[in-house]
Amino acid sequence: MNLRLQRRLASDVMGCSGKDVTFSFESDDDKDALKKAITKRDIRLLISAGLISRKPLNNSSRGRIRKAMTQRCKGRRSGHGSRKGKKTARQPRKEAWMKRIRLARTFLKTLRGKKAITPKNYRMLYLKAKGGFFRSKRHIKLYIDEHKLAGAKQ
User: Fold this and answer.
1) CA spacing 20 to 30 A to 97: which of 39, 43, 129, 147?
2) Nearest to 122 by CA among 114, 111, 138, 135
3) Where does the chain show beta strands of DSSP type E?
């Protein structure tokens, strides 16, 4: 029994693939009704009667992924075993530099503003920071203490 037309019409009506359309008929009357259905209206009646139905969707559940993503938002699941790519792939060198230099420059400006260092020392430290001498804010503090550049408290 060729039901190609009915399958196509049913897929149009239900908005799914023809592969997802199933026909269920118990008696010969049901077969005849299916065969005679040549309009979308006929197909809709057969769908409401239960002779034509759609296969259930079989999608993968995203519940586990959602749970993992909420954990990542909290900062979990980011250890060495979870990382792919180099350190510079996760945070580019330029971004790391920008973070470091901005922090150093704002720190030096606050020291100069508080008159903790002289303008001459500020300029010298600024140029050292520009040259990539300091690793961090702590490194700047250590350098100032070691070389006795602080005029007042930091």
Assistant:
1) 147
2) 111
3) 21-23, 52-54
Give per-residue pLDDT as tens, 61-101: 999 999 999 999 999 999 999 999 999 999 999 999 999 99
CATH class, 4-54 region: mainly alpha
**Residue 78 and residue 114 in contact, taking contact as beta carbons nearer than 8 Å:** no
Q: Which of 62, 65, 41 is nearest to 52 (CA)?
A: 41
The pTM (predicted TM-score) of the whole model is 0.57
Three-point CA angle 149, 152, 154, nearest 5°: 85
Domain ranges of the chain: 4-54, 91-146
- Please, which residues bridge with residue 52 across strands? 23
- CATH code, 91-146: 1.10.1200.60
Length of the chain: 154
**Could you identify the residue written with the tokens 């030096």?**
108
